[in-house]
Write a structure and sequence with these properties.
The protein is an alpha+beta fold. It contains ten helices and five strands; from the N terminus they run H-H-H-H-E-H-E-H-H-E-H-H-E-H-E. The longest helix has 22 residues. 28% of the residues are buried. The structure holds flavin mononucleotide (FMN). One of its GO terms (molecular function) is oxidoreductase activity.
Length: 261
Amino acid sequence: MSSSASLLRSLSKPSNLRLLLPTSSSAFYSLSAPSRKVLLSARPAIPSSPLTTIPSQTRRMSSAAFLEAVKGRRSHYALSKDLSISSDRVQDIVKEALREVPSSFNSQSNRVVVLFGAEHDKFWDLVSETLKAIVPADSWEATAGRLAGFKAGAGSVLFFEDQTVVESFQSKFAIYADRFPGWATQSDAILQYTIWTALEAEGLGANLQHYNPLVDEKVAETWKVPATWKLNAQLVFGGRAGEAGPKEYLALEERYKVYGA
Ligand SMILES: Cc1cc2nc3c(=O)[nH]c(=O)nc-3n(C[C@H](O)[C@H](O)[C@H](O)COP(=O)(O)O)c2cc1C
């Protein structure tokens, strides 16, 4: 089992580069540089967490260790409320990932709400009430069983995209207006994956769910989430109470090409 700290460390950049854009030669990054700088300087940097104060020369890990964490992540559905790490550690992982994952134009549209204990239970009760009203009676038992499995976990990470950020970038960079919603979702997916992989690297189990948009209004009301935050996904986590199921793989030959190696 590899620790998530080395995984997250590999995502960290030196703090003096925090506000600089990558020097990519991509066409879109070469557009309107002055406007980009104004936008970025207007955004306060998120303060460093203890994980990012590691000297830069130690911020190296082999790709083998990183890929070990990638391989170690699975969908674990049998979860318990016993966390082998503290809730503070879970939060550090979530905050570090939130700070470091990339976003188009460094727009930082990702938003997160973490629910532990009774608040996590409340979320799954709320999903249950919402679904009970619409699921046919003869399939309710199966649905209820599935939801009980999620509630049996220790916590949930709710992932959102802030639409005010997406819209502001659409108006500032009109040429890419139709691309920003997709880019925001891609950035959020990277965040979901990073947190999922990091929690599993700590020995926890997790699985990814999508009860949005059915529960969006109740979530916003219950946890005072701004109306502009669009819910994308829910990552349930907890202690591992069972193994992940078998997984089939398509042949890589069907999915991969290389030229010039
Ligand atoms: C974009 C995305 C959406 C997913 N949505 C769900 C979901 O709504 N419910 C669920 O149980 N699993 C969901 N999964 C998990 C996949 O079913 C799972 O990752 C896949 O079967 C491979 O298994 P593994 O996670 O164990 O590697 C989702 C995964 C991805 C990447």
